[in-house]
Amino acid sequence: ILDFGYPQNTDTGILKTFITQQGVKSHQTKE
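The structure corresponding to this sequence follows.
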């Protein structure tokens, strides 16, 4: 099963980092 194009078995830390980076980019874009 893929989630955000990444395997579900991806390390949780890496997945959280990816999500956090996406959130930061979105926040910076709004500013």
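The chain has a mean pLDDT of 67.
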